[in-house]
Design goal:
The protein has 428 residues and is mainly alpha-helical. It is built from 18 helices and four strands. Strand 3 and strand 4 form a beta hairpin.
């Protein structure tokens, strides 16, 4: 009996952890390091996923929007989608704010933990500053310009700016339903055929997901600096557990409650339906790269219509970042605590609002979370160097928050599909 995909990926994760620990960065065979092999296999899988994102997303949105037809139906779908995304992001941020105030990871034995800065490698601080230097709220304002890029193909393929691609696809699908019938039918058949071909290619790539996941995770494990983790364990360890606890609460409590009481479906059944996508999101740390598999799981396993999926999921992969918004809030509060800054409620409310605003377009910015956290720190009067304190565990936490982002997107598709009147979602 063939193992189901999520079990294959889970086994690959376990084997990758073992292989990464045993090999490190130096072990190899025939003059080739295992680390290099891991990197090659993982990058090959990521490239294959990224290769199909643009044609898959574009054809899916065009077909889905053209199928909706009336502007009223599209407006209702869009309104429900944006309301869901804003609500879940706000819930995630508030959970993070509650956790960081409860556990105060920046306070050790009653004292601010800013002395940890003295233990940081100066190279780490320099690297952080080079990545956020000159960036701020102006970069976030540039997101709106990305809605209408001068070259849609270059923006989507070279720069990975999906916002412009989504807007163009929405316009094309909408106006396809408003031209003369012979042309509308021909265009619809073309894009529908392309969409079906892309789903077949996705099926092929997904068969190799366990191998790709193995390479990606083994590389991360082999690259982990255990000495630095030990050195900063007391302070950064509490921060790590605070973020992880908040993410798990949102993942295991908030979102399932929405599935149960808003959509009226079984959360356990949805976890099972989304298992391959969640494990791949955890491994790749990229909502966009996981998007083809997310769409397949939501449509085939959860039973959400292509009309809803093609609109909700590509938009969610770009603007709905629950895990990232939560992380930004906790990170900013942790750094404030570590510097001995006691923030009043009004300032904490400012942190919540900025985290919510920055998370909406965070995926389109290089060093996205760092830029967003820099904006928050500037707003409350703290230096950007404080970000260096969280860099030790940022990569590991990135895996958890990406899985949370993807799960929130998938829950959004289920909730909105149910609100749209779909009957076959997560049926027995």
């Amino acid at each position: 009996m063939k193992l189901k995909l999520h079990w294959q990926i889970l086994i690959a994760l376990l084997l990758a952890f073992i292989a990464g620990v045993l090999s490190g960065k130096d072990a190899g065979v025939f003059g080739i390091s295992f680390y290099t092999m891991f990197a090659f296999v993982g990058q090959l899988f990521l490239n294959a996923l990224k290769m199909i994102i643009v044609p898959l997303v574009f054809s899916s949105i065009v077909v889905g929007i053209a199928g909706i037809g009336s502007s009223g139906a599209l407006g209702r779908l869009g309104g429900k989608t944006l309301l869901y995304y804003l609500a879940t992001s706000l819930f995630a941020i508030l959970i993070g704010l509650f956790m960081v105030n409860l556990f105060t990871p920046g306070i050790i034995n009653g004292q601010p933990a800013n002395e940890v800065m003295g233990k940081l490698d100066t190279a780490v601080v320099s690297d952080v500053m080079s990545r956020v230097e000159g960036k701020g709220a102006g970069d976030l304002a540039g997101i709106f310009l990305q809605l209408f890029p001068p070259n849609i193909i270059e923006a989507a393929s070279s720069n990975g700016q999906l916002l412009g691609l989504i807007v163009f696809a929405l316009l094309m699908g909408f106006f396809m339903s408003r031209i003369d019938e012979p042309y509308a039918e021909s265009l619809y058949n073309f894009w529908s055929g392309l969409n079906q071909v892309m789903m077949k290619i996705t099926d092929l790539i997904i068969k190799f997901a366990p191998i790709g996941v193995f390479g990606l995770v083994a590389k991360v494990v082999a690259d982990t600096d255990t000495d630095k983790l030990d050195e900063l364990a007391q302070t950064v360890g509490v921060f790590f557990l605070t973020v992880l606890g908040a993410l798990l609460f949102h993942f295991l409590v908030t979102l399932p409650l929405m599935l149960r009481f808003v959509a009226g479906v079984s959360p356990l059944r949805h976890y099972k339906a989304m298992a391959p996508a969640l494990l791949t999101a955890f491994s790749t740390s990229s909502s966009a790269s996981t998007l083809p598999l997310t769409m397949e799981c939501v449509e085939k396993n959860a039973g959400v219509s292509n009309r809803t999926t093609s609109f909700v999921l590509p938009l969610g992969a770009t603007v709905n970042m629950d895990g990232t918004a939560l992380y930004e809030c906790v990170a900013a509060m942790f750094i404030a605590q570590a510097y001995g800054l006691d923030l009043p409620f009004t300032v904490q409310f400012t942190v919540v609002i900025i985290a919510l605003m920055t998370s909406i377009g965070v995926a389109a910015i290089p060093s996205a979370s760092l830029v967003a956290i820099t904006v928050i720190l500037a707003a409350i009067g703290l230096p950007a160097e404080g970000i260096a304190m969280i860099m030790v565990v940022d990569r590991i936490l990135d895996m958890f928050r990406t899985a949370t982002n993807v799960f929130s997107d998938s829950c959004g598709a289920v909730v909105i599909g149910k609100l749209q009147g779909e009957k076959d979602i997560l049926k027995d």
